[in-house]
């Protein structure tokens, strides 16, 4: 049993890592220049290049991924380019709302599932279940 659990945990970790690689590189191939998006179309090319250097988007992709993944593993989710603030408070707020929504869904779905199972197994539904049998 312990080997099964360890195997499942290992597969979950590999899946999360592959998902992080896929999402990171998918975002990197999107068109556009982060420095240009932040500073606008009228910004000087030298200012755009300086901001790109500050953001680290002028480095090789592997180095960018390594910096990002080590930061995430240490709890540093980076800075928002839109708000110029740490991402963590925005993620925390979204996580709280997601957990509230999941708890509400759980409270609604579990009783409905139990009631549905009891109804499906009641003698009154035997005729319906047997109708499909040859």
In which range does the helix fraction lie? Answer: over 70%
Q: How is the biggest beta sheet arranged?
A: none
Q: Residue ranges: pLDDT <50 for 5 or more in a row?
A: none
Number of helices: 6
The total of beta strands comes to 0
Estimate the global geometry from the Cα principal axes.
Answer: elongated
Strand-residue proportion: under 5%
Mean pLDDT: 89
**H/E order of the elements?**
HHHHHH
Structural class: mainly alpha
Task: Return Rg in Å.
Answer: 25 Å
First and last CA, distance: 41 Å
Walkthrough of the structure:
With 134 residues, the chain is mainly α. It is built from six helices and no strands. The model has no long low-confidence stretch (mean pLDDT 89).
Summarize, please:
This protein has 134 residues and is mainly α.
SSE layout and pairings?
Elements: H1 2-28, H2 34-39, H3 45-55, H4 61-73, H5 88-120, H6 126-131
Keywords:
72% helix, 6 helices, mainly alpha, 134 residues
């Amino acid at each position: 049993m312990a080997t099964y659990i360890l195997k499942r945990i290992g597969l979950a970790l590999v899946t999360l890592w592959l998902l992080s690689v896929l999402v990171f590189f998918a975002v990197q191939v999107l068109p556009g220049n982060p420095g240009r998006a932040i500073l606008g179309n009228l910004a000087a090319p030298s200012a755009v290049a300086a901001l790109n250097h500050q953001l680290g988007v002028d480095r090789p992709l592997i180095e960018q991924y390594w910096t990002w993944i080590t930061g995430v593993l240490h709890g540093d989710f980076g800075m928002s380019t839109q708000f110029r603030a740490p991402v963590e408070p925005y993620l925390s707020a979204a996580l709280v709302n997601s957990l509230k929504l999941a708890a509400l869904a759980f409270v609604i779905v579990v009783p409905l599932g139990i009631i549905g199972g009891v109804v499906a197994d009641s003698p009154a539904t035997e005729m319906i279940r047997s109708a499909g049998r040859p």
